[in-house]
Every structure is written in C-alpha cells, then in structure tokens.
Write a structure and sequence with these properties.
The chain is an alpha/beta fold. Helix content is 33%, strand content 22%.
C-alpha cells in the first residue's frame, strides 16, 4: 500500500497486540521503532502524520517523568502531526505533567481493544 500517511509506532515495552494490520487497513504506512532514540531520529528526518507511543513512568529521571517527553520535544517541529498515547491507568496523574506541556490528540488506557484504538485514530485523515 502506497500512502503518504506515515504512522510512527513507538513500542518500548509492548505487552499488547501488534496493531500494524489495523494501522495499514486505515491507510497508513507504518514505521515501528523500539527506542525513543530511534523515534527521535526518525522524526528529525521524516514528516509523520500520526505518532502512537507509550507513556512509561520512569523513576530514574531527575528532570522528566519518561522518555516520552524527549520524543514530544521532537514532535513539536512537525507541523500537522497527531499524537495518540497509550498508558497504564496507574500513571494517569504522572502523565498529566506531560499532557499539560504538549499537544496530545488522544489517549488510551490499558486494557483497550482494537475498536477503541480505531476510534482514537479515526479522525486523523
């Protein structure tokens, strides 16, 4: 499938199904990376339509709550990118620090199903 809609999926920890087939059925070219560093590198070189990333709270950071903040700093340089974040309900309060500083289109808390994800990214055309 040839599309100019690129979906960058950042799967650091995973533990949920691979949604590549869903993303492709919605017309996206899917690029999957497993580290924030690779996501940032990709974002510097390519225009991305949709970023789907995890929020994983990390206690070892002094100035941040997670590596998502570094990724989001790179997203700010993209003009028309939409961001969907996947997170654990236990981290909702910690996530508010990130969501208050960056533009996030939608969030999904685990567990969620394929239809909920489809609805969360449906509006991005």
């Amino acid at each position: 499938m040839s599309s100019d809609k690129i979906l960058l999926a950042v799967v650091e920890q995973g533990g949920y199904p691979d949604f590549t087939a869903l993303y492709e059925s919605m017309g996206y070219n899917v690029v999957m990376v497993k580290t924030p560093r690779k996501a940032i590198s990709y974002l510097k070189k390519h225009q991305v339509t949709l970023l789907v990333a995890e929020f994983n709270f990390q206690t070892d950071f002094r100035d941040r709550t997670s590596s998502l903040e570094s990724i989001m700093a790179s997203v700010q340089h993209q003009q028309a990118i939409h961001v969907v974040i996947l997170l654990d309900k236990a981290n909702i309060e910690r996530f508010e620090r990130v969501s208050s500083r960056f533009s996030i289109y939608n969030t999904l808390t685990f567990p969620f199903d394929e239809e909920q994800l489809r609805q969360a990214i449906k509006i991005v055309a």
